[in-house]
Design brief:
By secondary structure, the protein is an alpha+beta fold. Helix 4 runs parallel beside helix 7 (124-147). The chain has a six-stranded antiparallel β-sheet, with no helix packed on it. The model is unreliable at 201-220, 243-267 and 578-608 (pLDDT under 50). It starts with a helix and ends with a helix. The longest helix has 37 residues, at 607-643. Strand 15 (527-528) and strand 16 (534-536) form a beta hairpin.
Length: 772
């Protein structure tokens, strides 16, 4: 019965139960964010399974690292059995279909949680995501708070999961959510406190000296701490309920999002690039409020152009000063695209905007537009100088027809011929300052070579900038920022930037070659929604260069790498360059003109493509971590052999007892206990008794070890027998286990994963190797 009670206490079953309840309390807010509770039973099952496995492994005294790995393995296996069973080989081993199914479930969950306001529908993908997150949280909390005996640290994963849940309701946090998770966390702290301090005032402890128990004052301080903790919890709950505060921001990007929860006025649909010509702030925006929602049957999606500029001053683009006298009259038909030869084959496409939050005078349309139909009394004017639509008053809905060059079309001879004269162009379209010219001249000459056709020149520049030499990043080196003396030179040196740097560099390289060029700003096509519409948000802001190409007029190019811009236009594609990365455009096949174009379903940037790129990086990281883990596994193995080498090499009973003493000293050294001075066994035993915390039975075991060692060293050989040697081995294990049990979790983890004995053993092996 005593053995069963000790095993139960070693398993820490009550602590595991409280950790499991705390994990489920993290998910409590989700009951108001999701419509159906189909995720609840699988989540409860997985959290309970993790807790039970941890308790069982602790009961059999498994190492902490093995307990955590066992819980993680069982958790992943349970998730696979619940959601991925049909993709497992023989119902056990994951396959490539398993990874594909995981991607499909996550993609489904992302679409739902970024589309619906609370409460969102609980699809299979949503259930998979919630159960997986709760399972991993349960493993983290149990490993840290129970196995590692560090409940304070377990508050980190609890707080992270809790904040993701409560911060997505779009409303002020209900106080009982916080009370539940905080109360259970305090119970975890109290359990650890009880386990550590309850045993102190005991007549079986060596600290007890008759009526003078050194721990007699502990209950007073312990009670005070519990009182202060309870008062702090009550104060936090009352404060959250009474103190006015703004709605929370969304910790988890899109989880059951409420569109009114970003700030006092809601998650406003605003962009900054219309005034600054720089979309940096917009690209970093986390707002999911739609700027545009629209439908289209276009076979190839185009960016939505808002405005353009040709003025480059002091390392940045300047918004145009639009003179109203140069605008076409209200209601005037749109002119044919300037410079577009009638021999160029085009295909007309149509886009219907069902929601527009972009304020006047800006209107987002694919370029070049042919007709624009606004709703109600809305009107617009057109600026032929830069092909920009100037909205006169708000238009929440509108339709646009525009033209594009089909893929596979044969361009007429003479397309891209060198300009005979640039007199008809504004001087700013060819302006390039001396610093920039010095930075790009040699590279541009190298890229363009002897090519004279302007379209071919532009494609070469675009191909170079889209190559793997360059990396897309919103973080710029100081030399590439617009405050630097030569931002374009800095970009070319660091080869790192975002759409502004790529587009600006191509504009300047084109101007260097004598090609009129300007910068256009607008949006990428956005993401497709579950109802078939597409949504454009602030983070879809984009810039691209427009070059004057003879026979095509003002022509869009796409030098920004494909994952962040899409494929280049069909007429500007380089057949020798691989643009197979994730894109925002649908690649189209050669089009044969027919009386009625057959609509094609536009594709969205593939989640699996993105996931695949992430998994490649993750696989490298995991491979490195696995290699490091395998190398580190050598240390505990060597340590185990090094600690017990005296026992394994013993040739007599005296040698075996000395080996057991060596095992004791090296094991305690791993746990941070200093070696005793080289004195008599009794003195060494007193040293260990003074620097460790042992109860009476453990102290008696240490005394027996020292007594047997003393008889083995100083008495006649016949004074020790096999039973004495066996008893010493058992007593050594008892003392080591007792010291390990009372040691802090970090010392226990270090002794298990990176023991000093292992390092000493490896050092001795290397020393012996070189001495040979």
């Amino acid at each position: 019965m005593k053995l069963d009670l000790e095993a139960f206490q070693r398993g820490m079953w009550p602590e595991g139960l409280v950790a499991a309840l705390a994990t489920m309390a993290v998910a409590w807010p989700l009951t108001s964010l999701l419509r159906e509770e189909t995720w609840l039973l699988p989540a409860l099952s997985m959290v309970a399974l993790v807790a039970i496995v941890g308790a069982i492994l602790r009961t059999i005294d498994a190492p902490p690292s093995l307990i955590a790995l066992g819980q993680l393995f069982v958790g992943l296996a349970g998730i696979a059995a619940l959601f991925l069973r049909e993709t497992l080989w023989r119902g056990f081993l994951p396959t490539s279909a398993t990874l594909a199914e995981v991607g499909a479930l996550l993609r489904q969950a992302g679409t739902v949680l970024q589309t619906y306001a609370a409460p969102a529908p609980t699809t299979e993908g949503v259930s998979f995501l919630v159960v997986a997150v709760l399972t991993l949280t349960a493993v983290s909390v149990d490993s840290m708070g129970v196995t590692g005996r560090a409940p304070a640290s377990a508050g980190i994963p609890l707080a992270a999961g809790f904040l993701v849940s409560v911060s997505n309701s779009g409303e002020a946090m209900p106080p009982w959510y916080f009370a539940a998770i905080a109360g259970l966390w305090l119970v975890m702290l109290a359990q650890q406190d009880h386990r550590v301090t309850a045993a102190w005032p005991s007549d079986r402890r060596r600290e007890s000296r008759g009526s003078e128990d050194v721990s007699s004052g502990i209950p007073h301080h312990r009670g005070l701490a519990q009182t202060l903790g309870g008062l702090a919890l009550v104060g936090a709950v009352l404060g959250a309920a009474v103190i006015p505060h703004l709605p929370p921001t969304f910790f988890g990007d899109g989880l059951a999002r409420n569109t009114q929860a970003r700030g006092p006025a809601g998650d406003t649909a605003e962009v900054a690039f219309t005034e600054t010509m720089d979309p940096t702030k917009d690209l970093k925006s986390r707002s999911e409020a739609p700027i545009l929602t629209y439908r289209t049957t276009a076979s190839r999606l185009e960016p939505l152009r808002v405005t353009s500029t040709e003025r480059w001053e002091d390392g940045k683009w300047v918004a145009p000063a639009r003179d109203a006298s140069g605008l076409l009259p209200v209601g005037a038909p749109l002119p044919r695209p300037d410079g577009l030869s009638p021999d160029v084959p085009v295909q007309e496409q149509r886009m219907t905007v069902t929601g527009n939050a972009l304020p006047p005078p800006y209107l987002a349309v694919p370029s070049p537009p042919v007709t624009i139909d606004l709703t109600g009394s809305s009107s617009y004017r057109f600026d032929p100088r830069d092909d920009t639509v100037v909205l006169q008053n708000a238009s929440p809905r509108y339709q646009v027809s525009y033209v594009g060059i089909p893929s596979g079309s044969q361009l007429p001879d003479g397309t891209g011929a060198p300009l005979e004269s640039t007199d008809g162009f504004d001087a700013e379209l060819l302006d390039i300052d001396d610093i920039t010219k010095g930075s790009i001249a040699d590279l541009t000459d190298q890229i363009v070579g002897e090519e004279t056709n302007t379209l071919a020149q532009a494609v070469r520049i675009q191909t170079h900038l889209r190559s793997s030499e360059y990396r897309y990043s919103l973080e710029l080196a100081p030399a590439a920022r617009d405050t630097a003396a030569d931002p374009i030179g800095g970009f070319l040196a660091t080869k790192q930037g975002y759409c502004v740097q790529f587009a600006t560099t191509m504009v300047m390289m084109a101007r260097y070659e004598g090609i009129p060029a300007r910068m256009a700003v607008g949006f990428l096509p956005g993401t497709v929604q579950v109802d078939g519409t597409r949504k454009v948000v602030a983070a879809n802001a984009h810039t691209w260069p427009e070059l004057w190409i003879e026979g095509l007029g003002w022509t869009r190019f796409e030098p920004t790498p494909g994952l962040h811009s899409g494929q280049p236009p069909a007429y500007a594609s380089n057949p020798n360059q691989d643009d197979s990365g994730a894109t925002t455009s649908t690649a189209i096949k050669s089009v044969t003109p027919t009386p009625t174009a057959t609509p094609a379903t536009p594709s969205d940037p593939s989640f699996l493509d993105t996931l695949g790129e992430v998994l490649k990086v993750l696989a490298k990281v995991l491979l490195g971590a696995l290699t490091l883990a395998l190398l580190l596994m050598v240390v505990p193995i060597v340590g185990r052999r090094y600690r017990a080498e005296g026992v394994h090499t013993a040739e007599s009973l005296q040698d075996e007892i000395e080996g057991q003493w060596l095992l004791l000293t090296r094991s305690l050294r791993d746990l941070g206990v200093d070696d005793p001075p080289a004195r008599s066994p009794r003195d060494m035993g007193r040293h260990y008794a003074s620097v460790t915390t042992l109860n009476r039975s453990d102290s008696e075991a240490l005394g027996r070890v020292c007594s047997t060692l003393e008889r083995s060293r100083y008495a006649v050989p016949a004074s020790v027998d096999d039973d004495d040697a066996a008893q010493v081995g058992q007593d050594v294990r008892t003392v080591v286990h007792a010291v390990r049990h009372e040691s802090p979790w970090n010392l226990r983890a270090n002794a298990a994963l990176l023991p000093r004995s292992g390092v000493d053993g490896i050092r001795r092996w290397f020393t012996g190797l070189f001495r040979r």
